[in-house]
Here is the input.
Amino acid sequence: SMKCCNSLKYAIAAICLLPSTIWLMSSYTYDSWNLAFCILFVALCFRIRESRKCIRIIDIVGLLIVLLLFTPIKFVYAIMILAVILIPFDQIKGMKKIPKVVVIVSVVSFATLLLAIRGKEALAYLTTSSMDTRGVSDLALAQSYTIQWAVKHPVYIVLTYSYTIIHEFWMLLRSCFVNETFAWMVPAYIIVSVIIVFTLIMMSTLKGYKIHKKDRIKSTVIMLLSILAVFTAFLFLYSTVSSGKYGEITGMQGRYFLPFLIYLAIAIKSDKVSVLVDNSKNMVLPGLTEYDSRRVLIYFLVLLNLCVVFFESVGMMNIPISYGG
Here is the structure.
């Protein structure tokens, strides 16, 4: 991803060096595979954008291949296809030079293959009582969500989404950046520090790169729709209808939102964060006359990562420790 889109390298590095990502890479979960190819897909879209050339056949084929590498594993990540709207319309309009048959055959083949792999399963979760029962204690009393039920109870659905966002916000935020396993052992000030440093890196990634307001809006909308897609997927997949005025979406974990963080590099980009610091007098970093503050932020993120690993390792070993004063 860094090789094909150098302008996003700091954002990619920041995501890959988050404590939650490092934890994923040291496990057998396929979420690290998904994360890698989701980022690659966005990087390819941004590379096409940077080239300022019309989309070619090889670009279409490359994007479809990358999509097929991660979408069938977690169907909800099909939402990543929205990244193509980051490509200016003028470049997409240039596809007129490509035979329509090629475009149609490519898209139809991709859709057919995707539906053949996971289509029936996804449709069953949406329209029938099928669900993942790993989090259900009493199957006899469990009632899963369906599209038909959701249409008949829109207020209940809205309240369920609202309650879940409010009630699970800190847990999801913490597990997204730090990891859900033993994250409770990490002091809040370290977690907040990780989030702040990460945010500064994302703001400074595209330093000097012209980003229009409409690009910020597109990135923000894509990210929000992607988050909504995850909420919706787990509403139908894991959650059960409550007897109260609203329910709660269960089964979500912070790592499912990691692929969407790449959009922050565009949405919150600012030239004021990253500067070249004159080091000739202060010699903060010996041997360098100037340095890019983005690199320093990456170093800080690595140090914070080590702190997180320490506290989580203590939790893993189940050794009591006093921290926080």
